[in-house]
Amino acid sequence: MPMALPPSPSPMPSLFSPMVLGALELPNRIWMAPLTRCRAEDGHVPGALMAEYYAQRASAGLIIAEATMAMEGHSAFWHEPGIHSQAQVDGWRLTTDAVHRAGGRIVLQIWHGGRACHPLLNGGRVPVAPSPIAITGDTVRTPEGKQPYVVPRELDDDEIPAIVEGFRLAARNAMAAGFDGVEVHGANGYLLDEFLRDGSNHRSGPYGGPIAQRARLLLEVLEAVAGETPLMGLRLSPLNSYNAMADSDPIGLITWLARRLNDLPLAYLHLMRGDFLGRQQGDVLSPAREHYRGVLVSNMGYDATEAEAAIAAGAVDAVAFGTAFLANPDLPARIRRGAPLNEPDPATFYSPGPAGYTDYPTLASV
């Protein structure tokens, strides 16, 4: 059964109002959120199937491509793409060329999996993290089936500059691959988020303790990336408990970050407003809107009606849609026409091949 789109005024003038983002002119405020799909080829190389998938969704105001390995040896999803080799750069060029030919705009989310990585995905390498605290209550997909997460190795302070350099080179490679910019992944319990939140960062020294020190790695990465790309975004999730994450003061964390990010050449802040698992509650959008002076994009659980109202009220500047875009390559057209939405198939979210990936129908094909 198609998933009905809630009744709403057409044509939703706020959602379909153009906006300028750096040098980009976006035709609408319906962004595509980064969605891990595990369709990369051997060597974490993006191929023609991924190019087809993203080109199908080129009508988004902006596509944020999926979490992509900034550096070798830190895989957390088995078949996720990378941007640290020439083959990966060449593979991503298939996608950026296809999206641009279709009239779209696309940025790459660059990422380090941190403690969410697993030795079976990385040639036996033990994952790294701010503190030796394992993810609990979940498993990771590996070539040997689902496995529990392992206790990560605590990074030494003198290893951290190499992490920063890895992000910098990833941004440079993204530009060589033809992306319009990059989004730094600081969310969802991966390395940068692990440093930010006190539930996973128990270290002392310059990268642990108060917020200003826990945020130091993120800020160093942003400063490095800014020198390599004309457009830089950042994704944060201060409430999300996915990957066994928590923070004692998520509102204080986002408030401090929102103020501090004004000092950086950030094109937008992409904020996940809630918690996948419903464990942590709170309003992180209001302090972000109050203290951050740039473009604010929100994500998680919006339908078109709520997104239109939030933009019209000035609460956010755009909304990033996840599973709705996954199952509806022509999502903006469906929203404009008030058409029903395809229902996403969770069984094919991470499976190989085109099924549940490039075969969702468009309005023109039904």
Characterise this structure.
This protein is of the alpha/beta class. It has a single domain, classed as Aldolase class I (TIM Barrel). Helices cover 28% and strands 16% of the residues. The chain has 11 helices and 14 strands. It has helices spanning 48-56, 86-101, 160-176, 191-196, 211-214, 216-226, 250-260, 285-291, 304-312, 323-327, 331-337, and strands at 19-21, 24-26, 30-32, 63-69, 106-111, 128-129, 139-142, 145-148, 153-154, 182-186, 232-236, 268-272, 295-299, 318-321. The strands form 4 sheets. It has an 8-stranded parallel β-sheet with strand order 3-14-13-12-11-10-5-4. Strands 1-2 form a two-stranded antiparallel ribbon. Strands 6-9 form a two-stranded parallel ribbon. Strand 7 (139-142) and strand 8 form a beta hairpin. Residues 4-9 have low confidence and may be disordered.
Summarize the structure in short.
The protein has helices spanning 48-56, 86-101, 160-176, 191-196, 211-214, 216-226, 250-260, 285-291, 304-312, 323-327, 331-337, and strands at residues 19-21, 24-26, 30-32, 63-69, 106-111, 128-129, 139-142, 145-148, 153-154, 182-186, 232-236, 268-272, 295-299, 318-321. The protein is of the alpha/beta class and 366 residues long. Strands 3-14-13-12-11-10-5-4 form an eight-stranded parallel β-sheet. It has a two-stranded antiparallel sheet with strand order 1-2. A two-stranded parallel ribbon has the order 6-9.
